[in-house]
């Protein structure tokens, strides 16, 4: 429990108690009358001795009795009212203290609920962020796996069929159209994941994918023998151009440096 809350609860108890004391002690309309009896000899209750009062004490007692008897009826009623007023003040003060404590308790409970709500909101936000990160990782890994699967299909030199025309790809023009349509379809959402810390996982599969396409083109004789020289291959340069657009300049440089670190003798075309 916070110190401020404890202070408020203590204050809420002390203030009504202080007000009650003030009303009891400071607002009496009739003061109490006290008198002292002077006994001439010690009391011996066992021997049942008689109690002897001094003349002075008896005189004072008579004065008090006479004074009391001389009080008008209105003032006697006022004394009764004074006693009842004290009872009502006590009752109201106790009720005030109880209600104040209950109010402070519910206010404090509300503050605790608000703090718990804020903590829950932060936890929920963090969970949502973590969930989105996990979901993005899964989607990114699916793209990587799709690239690997496509690479394996090109290595098997299977027959390609254009999805739009439903015709077999049997010349270079259809081959280029098929390949670059597939680039756009395969990598269309890759830009979303460029900030992913694991983005470099796609560099090696992409390079293998490009080489598999080149081997497939040579196997099907869609590409000429001169294009085996990467520097002179227009088709390979076109693939590089697509990768630049898909990855962006910054990620393309990372991709290039990543491949160069494993294949230092490989020269990317300008």
What summary fits the major beta sheet? none
Roughly how many Å is the radius of gyration?
Answer: 50 Å
- Strand tally: 0
**Total domains, how many?**
2
Q: Quick check: average pLDDT?
A: 76
Low-confidence stretches: none
- Overall outline: rod-shaped
Question: What report would you give on this structure?
Answer:
It contains 7 helices and no strands. The chain is mainly α and 270 residues long. The chain folds into 2 domains: 100 residues; 106 residues, no CATH class. Helix 6 packs across helix 7. The model has no long low-confidence stretch (mean pLDDT 76).
Summarize the structure.
The chain has 7 helices and no strands. With 270 residues, it is an all-alpha fold.
Give the secondary structure arrangement, pairings included:
Elements (H helix, E strand, L loop, with lengths): L2 H24 L28 H15 L3 H83 L16 H15 L16 H17 L14 H14 L1 H14 L8
Keywords: Membrane, Transmembrane, Transmembrane helix
Q: Notable features of this structure?
A:
mainly alpha, 2 domains, 7 helices, rod-shaped, 270 residues
